[in-house]
Write a structure and sequence with these properties.
The structure is a single chain. The chain has 290 residues and is of the alpha/beta class. It folds into two domains: 8-126, Rossmann fold (3-Layer(aba) Sandwich), CATH 3.40.50.720; 129-159 and 187-248 and 264-282, Alpha-Beta Complex (UDP-galactose 4-epimerase, domain 1). Helices cover 40% and strands 17% of the residues. The protein contains twelve helices and eleven strands. The chain has helices spanning 19-28, 52-56, 72-85, 109-115, 132-135, 137-145, 162-174, 193-204, 216-225, 230-244, 254-259, 266-275, and strands spanning 8-12, 33-37, 42-43, 59-65, 90-94, 120-126, 147-150, 156-157, 181-185, 191-192, 210-213. It has a seven-stranded parallel sheet with strand order 3-2-1-4-5-6-9, with helices on both faces. A two-stranded parallel ribbon has the order 7-11. It has a two-stranded antiparallel sheet with strand order 8-10. Helix 9 packs antiparallel against helix 10. The radius of gyration is 20 Å and the shape is globular. The termini are far apart. The structure holds NADP nicotinamide-adenine-dinucleotide phosphate. NADP nicotinamide-adenine-dinucleotide phosphate is lined by residues 13-19, 37-40, 44-47, 65-68, 94, 96, 126, 128-129, 132.
C-alpha cells in the first residue's frame, strides 16, 4: 500500500488523545477514515467481539490503541490476526516506552501480538504525553486549582507531544519505509513535574500554580480523596515511582528517525493549550487581588 491507496484507514481510540489527531490528519490529506471506539462514530468495543468484524470491512491500514484491560494482549492478538486475514496490510500499534522490559527479555505481549499478526507492523513507544496536562480531567483540575500533587519527587521525564505521535502514526499508516520499525518517541527535553508546572505557569501568566511533591502513601491518600479509582491510584503511583527513579530519563530519537525533524518542545505545547483557554483558575486568586 502507498499514499495512493483508496482503501479506508481504521483508527481505533478515535476519540482519544492520539486517535483523534491521527483521524483528523488523515482526513485533511484526503484519506477515507473510520474512527472507531465505544462512543465514536463507528462502534468498536474491545469487550464485544461482535463489533470487530464490521469495522474491518474495506480497511487497508489500521491504527491500534489497546483496551488497557487485563486481557488487552489476548484481544489484541485475536483482533490483529483477524485484521490480517481480512486483508489489512499495515498495522500501527500505540504502545508505551515506559513499559519496555530490559534488553533481551520478552517484549510487551500486545507488541508481540501485532508483530506476529502476519500484517506489516510499526510500533510506537511514546513517553508520557504532554496532553495529559490539559486533556486528562485529573491533571487539568489540579492545574486549574493551582496544586499539582505527585509522588514523582524531582525525577524527570521527556514528555512527548501527541501532535508528534500523530505525525509519526500517519507516516507509518500511509508511507513506505516504516514497516518493522519500533519508534521510541520522546520530547526534546527532560522535565520534572516542577518544570512542567513552571512552563504552564509561564504560558498562562499564572503565579499561583505549584508542584507539591509528596510520598507515595500521601499521594494515594490524596488521590482517593479526589475520587480516583483505587486501581488507577496504584498504577499512577507505580508510574510516578518510575519517574522519581529517573527510569526513562533519556531522550529518544523516534520522531527524528520517522519524520526527519525535531520533536516539539513542551513550551510550545503549553503556549498552544494556554492560548486555547486551558488551565484558567477555578477560584479567583486572592494573591492576585489588590
Ligand atoms: N497518556 C499517556 O501519557 C501515555 C503514554 C504512553 C502510552 N500511552 C498508551 O496510549 C494508549 C492510550 O492511552 P490514553 O490514556 O492517552 O487514552 P486516550 O487515547 O486518550 O483514550 C483512550 C481511547 O480508547 C478508547 N477506548 C477505551 N476503552 C475502549 C474499549 N473497551 N473499546 C474500544 N475503545 C476503547 C476511548 O474511546 P471510547 O471511550 O469512545 O471508547 C478513547 O478513544 C494506552 O495504550 C496507553 O497505555 C499513554
Amino acid at each position: 500500500m502507498t499514499t495512493e491507496t483508496t482503501k479506508t484507514i481504521l483508527v481505533l481510540g478515535g476519540t482519544g488523545k492520539t486517535g483523534r489527531r491521527v483521524a483528523s490528519r488523515l482526513r485533511q490529506r484526503g484519506f477515507e477514515v473510520r474512527a472507531a471506539s465505544r462512543k465514536g462514530p463507528a462502534r468498536f468495543d474491545w469487550s464485544d467481539e461482535n463489533t470487530w468484524e464490521p469495522v474491518l470491512a474495506g480497511i487497508g491500514a489500521a491504527y491500534l490503541v489497546d483496551s488497557q484491560l487485563a486481557d488487552a494482549a489476548t484481544s489484541m492478538r485475536a483482533f490483529a490476526k483477524l485484521a490480517a486475514t481480512r486483508g489489512v496490510e499495515r498495522l500501527v500499534l500505540l504502545s508505551a516506552r515506559n513499559w519496555v522490559v530490559p534488553e533481551g527479555q520478552e517484549k510487551l505481549p500486545c507488541e508481540r501480538a501485532v508483530r506476529e499478526s502476519g500484517a506489516q507492523w510499526t510500533i510506537l513507544k511514546p513517553s508520557w504525553f504532554a496532553q495529559n496536562f490539559d486533556e486528562d480531567p485529573f491533571y487539568r483540575g489540579q492545574l486549574e486549582d493551582g496544586d499539582v500533587v505527585t509522588s514523582t519527587g524531582d525525577g524527570v521525564e521527556p514528555f512527548v507531544d501527541a501532535e508528534d505521535i500523530a505525525d509519526v502514526a500517519v507516516a507509518a499508516l500511509t508511507e513506505d519505509g516504516h514497516g518493522g520499525q519500533a519508534y521510541e518517541l520522546s520530547g526534546p527535553r527532560l522535565l520534572s513535574l516542577a518544570d512542567v508546572v513552571e512552563e504552564i505557569a509561564r504560558a498562562t501568566g499564572r503565579t499561583d500554580i505549584a508542584h507539591r511533591p509528596v510520598s507515595p502513601a500521601e499521594f494515594a491518600a490524596y488521590a482517593k480523596r479526589q475520587g480516583l479509582p483505587e486501581e488507577f491510584v496504584g498504577l499512577l503511583n507505580m508510574l510516578y515511582g518510575w519517574i522519581a527513579d529517573n527510569r526513562f530519563a533519556d531522550l529518544a530519537d523516534g520522531v527524528q528517525r520517522a519524520l526527519h525533524r525535531e520533536p516539539r518542545d513542551f513550551a510550545e505545547y503549553a503556549r498552544t493549550a494556554a492560548a486555547a483557554g486551558m488551565w484558567r483558575p477555578t477560584q479567583p486568586n486572592p494573591r492576585a487581588e489588590g
